[in-house]
């Protein structure tokens, strides 16, 4: 082999080794597998690719989840930390709260997603800054817009019910904001506490005769069992709306005023990109959703199932799902 050939081979080997060394590993950790939460991860990875972080060359990914079991979260986080990732994408509030405490290597940045209020949850100090290790994309709802939407779909609406887990910080924030929006809109908000998904049918049943519609907030205990809630809603002839869009349920629900989980993942990727390029989490303010992050839908079949017509003003609306 000639000297020239040897030098070329050495250069290629060095280039390959350098490329391999520069490949960054990102650990994605979620509370569980759910279509909406999976959209966060998918949106994140697609946006990262668009930003130049090609999967398999610039970055690699792992995915771990706790199967919606809080007792498994420490195990998930121990696995994630053992991977020594360049960055962690942590999905849902409870998992992020545990990650802030449980990931002991404080050189690993944590980008949160699917978190309503990271300030109340203690993940970041305020809305202008991240913490030393964490920042991300929030899913702060716009309940003023939600109730305005419900007024158009159900003219004359006076009371809206919802189900919430009093033990979840996300749920507490949602209830506070929804109640405040209800006061401004002249709509009474009736919240029914639910600690376990097994209680959902009975608690949903309890709203019969009390409200004109039910709107489901971004609650883990509720969102994992929406089909069950929908069955009860149809039985009691109650229009049911959700804060998470799921096309598989569009015939069972009356409609959706939903934040895009995919876009939430994309916004988290924008923040991850900045961190991987050297920015400090503390210098990056958490992302707050804007109008374009929400989608409105009304289901013709879902409304018919509970005996309600589509208002004339909406019969040509792009919101309609037929």
UniProtKB/TrEMBL annotation:
The keyword Hydrolase does not apply. Residues 1-21 form the signal peptide. The keyword Signal applies. InterPro entries: ABC_transpt-TYRBP-like (IPR007487). Gene3D superfamilies: 3.40.50.2300. Keywords: Signal. PANTHER family: ABC TRANSPORTER, SUBSTRATE-BINDING LIPOPROTEIN, ABC TRANSPORTER, SUBSTRATE-BINDING LIPOPROTEIN-RELATED. This is Putative ABC transport system substrate-binding protein.
């Amino acid at each position: 082999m000639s000297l020239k050939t040897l030098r070329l081979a050495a250069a290629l080997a060095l280039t390959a080794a350098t490329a391999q060394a520069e490949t960054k590993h990102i650990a994605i950790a979620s509370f569980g597998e759910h279509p909406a939460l999976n959209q966060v991860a998918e949106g994140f990875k697609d946006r990262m690719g668009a930003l130049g972080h090609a999967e398999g060359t610039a970055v690699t990914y792992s995915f771990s989840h706790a199967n919606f079991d809080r007792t498994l979260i420490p195990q998930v986080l121990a696995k994630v930390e053992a991977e020594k990732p360049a960055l962690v994408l942590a999905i849902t509030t409870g998992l992020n709260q545990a990650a802030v405490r449980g990931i002991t290597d404080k050189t690993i940045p944590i980008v949160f997603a699917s978190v309503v209020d990271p300030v109340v949850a203690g993940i970041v100090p305020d809305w202008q800054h991240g913490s030393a290790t964490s920042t991300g994309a929030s899913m702060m709802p716009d309940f003023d817009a939600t109730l305005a939407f419900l007024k158009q779909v159900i003219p004359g609406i006076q009371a809206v019910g919802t189900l919430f887990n009093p033990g979840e910080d996300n749920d507490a924030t949602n209830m506070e904001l929804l109640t405040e929006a209800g006061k401004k809109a002249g709509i009474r908000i009736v919240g029914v506490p639910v600690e376990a998904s097994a209680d959902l049918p009975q608690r949903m049943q309890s709203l019969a005769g009390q409200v004109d519609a039910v709107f489901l907030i971004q609650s883990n205990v509720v969102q994992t069992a929406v089909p069950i809630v929908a069955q009860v809603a149809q039985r009691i002839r109650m229009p049911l709306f959700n804060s998470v869009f799921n096309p598989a349920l569009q015939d069972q629900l009356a409609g959706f005023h939903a934040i895009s989980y995919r876009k939430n993942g994309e916004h988290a990727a924008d923040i991850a990109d900045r961190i991987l390029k050297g920015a400090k989490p503390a210098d990056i303010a958490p992302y707050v959703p804007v109008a374009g992050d929400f989608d409105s839908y009304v289901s013709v079949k879902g409304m018919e199932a509970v005996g309600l017509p589509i208002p004339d003003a909406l019969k040509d609306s792009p919101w309609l799902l037929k």
